[in-house]
Q: What sequence folds into this?
């Protein structure tokens, strides 16, 4: 097969496919962040901790309860979302009218507490989580063998991201959500329970983080430290796409995964920093992000 700029085409296509897998995680995680910021205007620093919690709960369900991957894929996001609802009702609802900085500081502190609790009980060592038997093996793409589980991750992430975008932008429920955040007093006057809408929005965004954690568990060592690097990159993705832009976060997450894959081919040493280089360039040219609205 031909070369591209001196790189064998199979190697290039293989790295792009692996980059698309990483981009799927970026898209799913940044989607949850974008939903919460776009609807509630809160920079949710607990998002990384909730992602880690999703993976840890999946491992705990397997190790202590004997529940398999498919059960975790359904119930863990619900548990994480319910936990986030408790946080929203007990803490966050009191600071909505304050400066955004208070929400950032509160969620950052909560992220430290959640991470500390899991480190206290489970340490920092990684725990293995098995791929379900139905998704073992690989698919021959001609230029590489793509593990079935990674193909599953891409498919689930794309479907969930598109379904979420459609729900928020194209349905009546989504219009209620947008109205509740833009003019809560008027929306309340029409008989819509705005506090419940806000609570469910925060819980849904957190459930997306929990889902991403379950999807990530078989691809990495499950550990209380697993969110550290991922969440920093995901915040960069949200900034590049535009804070609060649902579609922008999804497209940017997938695109930056591909950019990382290309960087690993041509200059591997820069693959861990290329996202931040792109963020700096985008902010210099368009401070609101690629898909954000200029004020």
A:
């Amino acid at each position: 097969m031909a070369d591209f700029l001196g790189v064998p085409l199979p190697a290039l296509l293989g790295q792009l496919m692996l980059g698309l897998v990483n981009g799927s995680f970026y898209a799913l995680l940044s989607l949850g962040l974008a939903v919460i910021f776009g609807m509630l205007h809160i920079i949710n620093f607990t998002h990384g901790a909730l992602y880690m919690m999703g993976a840890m709960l999946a491992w705990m369900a397997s190790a202590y309860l004997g529940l398999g991957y498919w059960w975790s894929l359904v119930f863990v996001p619900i548990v994480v979302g319910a936990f986030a609802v408790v946080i929203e009702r007990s803490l966050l609802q009191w600071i909505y009218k304050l400066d955004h900085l208070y929400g950032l500081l509160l969620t950052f502190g909560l992220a430290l507490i959640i991470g500390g609790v899991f480190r206290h009980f489970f340490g920092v060592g990684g725990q293995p989580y098995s791929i379900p038997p139905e998704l073992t093996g690989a698919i021959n793409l001609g230029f590489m063998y793509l593990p079935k589980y990674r193909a599953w991750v891409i498919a689930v992430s794309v479907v969930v991201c598109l379904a979420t975008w459609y729900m928020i932008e194209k349905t009546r429920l989504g219009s209620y959500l947008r109205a509740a955040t833009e003019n809560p007093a008027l929306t309340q006057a029409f008989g819509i329970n705005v506090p419940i809408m806000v609570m469910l929005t925060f819980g849904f965004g957190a459930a997306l983080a929990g889902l991403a954690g379950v999807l990530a568990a078989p691809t990495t060592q499950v550990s209380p430290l697993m969110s550290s690097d991922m969440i920093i990159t995901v915040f960069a993705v949200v900034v590049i796409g535009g804070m609060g832009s649902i579609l922008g976060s999804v497209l940017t997450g997938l695109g930056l995964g591909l950019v990382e894959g290309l960087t690993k081919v041509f200059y591997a040493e820069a693959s861990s920093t290329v996202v931040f280089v792109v963020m700096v360039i985008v902010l210099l040219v368009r401070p609101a992000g690629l898909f954000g609205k200029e004020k």
The chain is about 70% helix and 5% strand. The chain has a mean pLDDT of 86. The chain has one domain: 3-285. The two ends are 49 Å apart (CA to CA).
